[in-house]
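REVIEWER CHECKLIST
Item 1: Sequence provided? yes
Item 2: Single chain? yes
Item 3: Sequence as submitted:
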Amino acid sequence: MSVLREQERRRRDGGSVGAGRRAHREAQPAAVRELHRQLLAEHARSPRGAGLRAPFSAQVHRVNPVCGDEVLLRVDLVPGPRGGLLVRDVSYEARGCAISTASVSVLHDLTAGRALQESQAPRRALREVLTGATGAPADEEVLGDGVALVGVLRHPARTRCVLLAWTAFDDAVACAGLI
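Item 4: Structure as written out by the authors:
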């Protein structure tokens, strides 16, 4: 049984969120953990979308007070071709740990050039997995490279490092005042 299915089964059968996190930590094969580590290292070494660009609809600066990671993030929202809004670009300057840098790079990949509605799915899925809010397993179809970020469940204090950029994205969309 896969780690994610086991995690889901434990939650459904009354197991705690902590039990699900332990199951993920204990049962994830070493080869998968290594692949995820390499993927995060690649995003941290060569972050996609780095650098501030204009035009932009909103800009926010967020800091993780626990470790000092920070991100200055710009989002450019425009009317989409089929109605709704399109995330034309996400640009940023990030300073912090490799996990934080990789997270904002993954965010760029999963949001830039997509409909705003579509870009919200990975954000919700990642937050749900990391917080254990719904017991939802990590869905590679939705999270793409972001599935590697789920590895921080082995280090719960690093969850904030992952979520910093995603919170900044949410705040920038709200500041744009277009939704």
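Item 5: Key structural point noted by reviewer: Helices lie at 3-12, 17-27, 30-45, 98-111, 116-131, 140-143, 159-176.
Item 6: Recommendation: ____
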